[in-house]
Amino acid sequence: MFNNFSPNMLKTYQSCPRKYYYQYVENIQVPKSSLPFEKGKKIHALANYFLQGVNISRIETSLNENERQAWVRLLNNNYFKMEAVQSEYTLSCKLGDFWVGGRLDAVVKDGENYYILDYKTGSIPKNPEYDFQTMVYLLCLDRVLGSYESLSFVYINLKENKDFIIKFNPELKLKYEELVEEACQKISSDTLYNPSETACQRCEYSKICSAI
User: Fold this and answer.
1) Residue 37 burial (CB count, 10 A)
2) Does the structure show a pLDDT above 90 at 197?
3) How distant, in Å, are the alpha carbons of 71, 82, 104, 155, 192 from that of 108?
4) CA 64, 125, 135, 15 torsion: positive or negative?
């Protein structure tokens, strides 16, 4: 049984335990079109090269108009202009008996004020403050940094050219630890993986799911 969880694993289980079972326990991979994700992949790759100091002038010429608009918005974003600390940064931390972690788009800072950046070419989570990505990444970076003046998570919505900022604090830290560890414990003790009825219609596993 898993004792190492990513935000995607936690969110998948939250949406439907049966889907989690097919994807992460049985390791059944359903082919999906990559077209909806191409724009995001390009922007993330370009941002990573840029923050590492790579000359990206030739790569920029391959962007279409829609991609170029998103890229210009990111370049002009005040948080993206800050001092880069890490890009495409993989980290993890232990909560109770479980390890959680993932890969951050970028970590930047202004003095001792640190910011986790997450670029979105689509929409941001419906409840960003309590999204597992927000909680796990903030908890992990808090452990890595140890001391700092402030720590925040910034969702950069490139579609609407808006930012959504969650500022970490001791109260949130306690709440996040409780919620994430509780979610990990629930998954690790589940043996039935009962399906969520509301998640069935758009599920890529609907054709093989025994619950339908």
Assistant:
1) 13
2) no
3) 18, 6, 11, 13, 42
4) negative
